[in-house]
Amino acid sequence: MMVAFQPVPAVIEAIDKKVADNHLFTFRLSESISVAPGQFVELSIPGVGAFPVSTAAHPGGATFQACIRRAGRVTAALYRLDEGANVGIRGPFGQGFPLAAFAGRDVLLVAGGLGMAPLRALLQALLGERGRVGEIILLYGSREPDAILFRDELEGLAAAGTIKVRYSVDFATELPWSTDAYVCRIGLVTELLRDLRFAPAQTVAAVCGPPSLYGCVLEDLARLGIDPERIYATLERRMQCGVGQCCHCVTAGVFVCSQGPVFSLAELRRLPGSI
Amino acid sequence: MRSWAFQAGFEDRLLQSLRGDYRVLAPVRGTDGVVRLQPVRSWAELSPAGLPLIPLKKVVFPPHDVLWTLMEYEYREPAPSSVPVALVGIAPCDLYALAYLDLVFADDPHYQRRRQNLLLIGSNCRPTPECFCPPRREPPPFDLFLAADRLWVGSAWGAGLLTALQAELSSPGDLPLPAEITDGQQQVPENLEQLFTASAGLPLWREVGERCVSCGACSAVCPTCYCYEMSDEALPDGRVARRREWDNCFFRNHALVAGGQNFRPTRAERLRFRFEHKMLGFGALRGISACVGCGRCARACPVDIDISAVLAALAGGNKP
In whole angstroms, what is the distance from residue B260 CA to residue A72 CA? Predict the structure, then answer.
């Protein structure tokens, strides 16, 4: 099939500004597209440019939801737009999380910062068929309490006993909070692994966060006994074309945009320089 | 392969027969010494031209291309030119390079539109000391190929061009192409993948990479370099144009993401990246060498970085 460079026209339907510089955008598309958890789209601000962003919700269809950090030229332009503004969405691109691999197993999600957004889409997909997976534990590290994304939603799920949630924050001025459902500690997300009670042999892990997170967490999970074939991470790179042409995202000979961005740790070990 | 002998002056009559229907481009050496693909009227203008400095990728994958324009809510693709282009006097290495780009852009509508309108008339070259073509199993793609006083037909399109010129052709036969087209001058080591993987820690990359000034000349003149960047432009009439432009893996921002993380921050890493792309290929094309051995990159490099010397050093030879 020929590559399509034209985006699907979309409008900004809602902007949730609860977390500064990490707003949750909901876009309404003029044609439905199906973006699986872990896949991404190129969001186009006409006249400015485009950037890659993962879906933060599942299922999408007529809407597309993404957490977008104000980080560069194009995202800064997006932050200047209001609800109703026209954008374009091209995609979906890449290989998402292999949902079949989660069936019948416990799930450990490890998120760092904005990495919570793709994992929220995965979580929603898993919760859509809650009976197909065992226990779901979320370990989620943020810079500070105010930076925690989807906090109401996650704490609701924890309070209902649907999933277990453990937060960590790098910085906090007062003691972190704790309830029966969820706890929060000061420190890095890796701290949460130390006394975690779970069954590694029957667990699938999905990790998403900044590159520095992968350097330690992925091998830690393997050391705890999770099969490296069942530890998944999604790589951030400069994806631009989305279809394995423009070459910016290539890592160890692999197009992260089309062959990834989700890889297992077993695959990443064969890709030097990927983590 | 079908082949005929032709008489003196045939090349000019071939050019003449193309002129009405095609935009005819061929490598021509200018008074400044630079060889360019440009319109020609006679075969004498081609000789002795050699390889065009900017290779034929620019015809099918222009340095600046408009992917779409947007007016209000309507996206439009630019109307392609309907005049077919005939590239004449193209050396085998450049034809092989086009075959590689055909693989890269197999699903690219903008490339394919131009490619399907492209007539290729190859001609034999004389390898120079800087050439390091790899040996080939298959002939390169062409519609017609001329060598000395014989021509070969590579497609039905090429055969069709000859109907009006039959009187000047003789001695038809089923002859192989001249051997020098496929012989090559430098063998790529069979275990290059392993040599490359093992080379990660070698000082070679740093030593050579540190000479690099990140000017990007090597990629601009490479017949198979195709990295691109997309950017938007607001046009004076109110439209927005999304453009695709040649990019360069030696540029510092090639792997830079918003927020400041650079996945190839050093020149040594970028040199190794380019070498990997040229010699080993990416993604589905892993194992297919993109380097056709034309030597343009080494000639264009202001600090004498020569990818064939890096290859030789990796295979156990002298330091480049």
Answer: 9
pLDDT of A115: 97
Each residue's pLDDT tens digit, B84-122: 999 999 999 999 999 999 999 999 999 999 999 999 999
pLDDT score of B51: 94
Give me the interface pTM, i.e. the ipTM: 0.94
Q: How close does chain A come to B257, measured CA to CA in Å?
A: 5
The pLDDT value recorded for residue B210 is 92
Under a CB-based contact definition with an 8 Å cutoff, are residues A131 and A156 in contact? no
pLDDT of residue B49: 73
Helix, strand or coil, per DSSP, at residue B38: strand
User: Do residues A271 and A249 make contact, with C-beta atoms less than 8 angstroms apart?
Assistant: no
> How far, in Å, CA of B153 to CA of B21, rounded?
19
The greatest distance separating any two alpha carbons of chain B, rounded to the nearest whole angstrom, comes to 68
Residues of chain A neighbouring B105 (CB-CB closer than 8 A) = 245
Structure tokens, A160:
């209902």
**d(CA B229, nearest CA chain A) in Å:** 7
Has this prediction a pTM greater than 0.90?
Answer: yes
DSSP A1: -
> A-chain residues within 8 Å CB-CB of B205?
none
Q: Three-state DSSP class for A74? A: helix
Residues of chain B with Cβ-Cβ distance to A47 below 8 Å are 232-234, 240
